[in-house]
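Record 1 of the preview.
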Amino acid sequence: MTSPRVPSVLILLGGMVLAVALAPILILPVREQLHVNCHYGTMGEGAGSWMCADGIGYLMPGAGILVGSILALLLALLVVLLSARVAPRDAATTARILAPAPVLWVGLVTGSTALRSDPLPPQSSWPALWWETIGIAVMISAAGAVLLALATTSGAASRSGAGRGSGLGGRRALPVVGAAIGAVLLVAGGLLQPGLMHAAAASGALIAVAWIVRLFPHAEQPGLRTA
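->
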């Protein structure tokens, strides 16, 4: 019997590679916009300008942000690899639940910026700085990931209903519409804040795994076992 396990593993591994490849983009918003490891000069020659650490000082903050995406993908990968003993739909459920996690992790980790109290330029505040730099993009991408995850659930329900003869055309269209809106929002958040692209890629990989099960409807039946 054809199994969704192999394509799911490949998608998750590809998501990890892509997330790591996009991770360097994090440095720009972390340093230049969130001003991590920086302080604003208020006196002397440095007054009115930002003084920041060198590039190596951003390895740990960048790794801390990236780890959320990698852990979510690794957890989904573990469940997929163990799906020989459980229904593949359990792996899909895990992927759906984890889908918004990479994006939300970025918001959570960078949210510490909003708690800072050191000096800023006039008319600025740390909470507003975080919201404008990361917060809006995180909310947009996270909403997209949630919509995409819900679309996979609705898709499975619509397919089951169709099998019983109770499916309606409008109901079947809901997953497609939700997926389209969700995809636009997920990508839009990454475009609005490029530092979020690695997390959007990880969320996309998780959602793709959930959708893979739709291509293997018989593999979802828990009573079936491969020989």
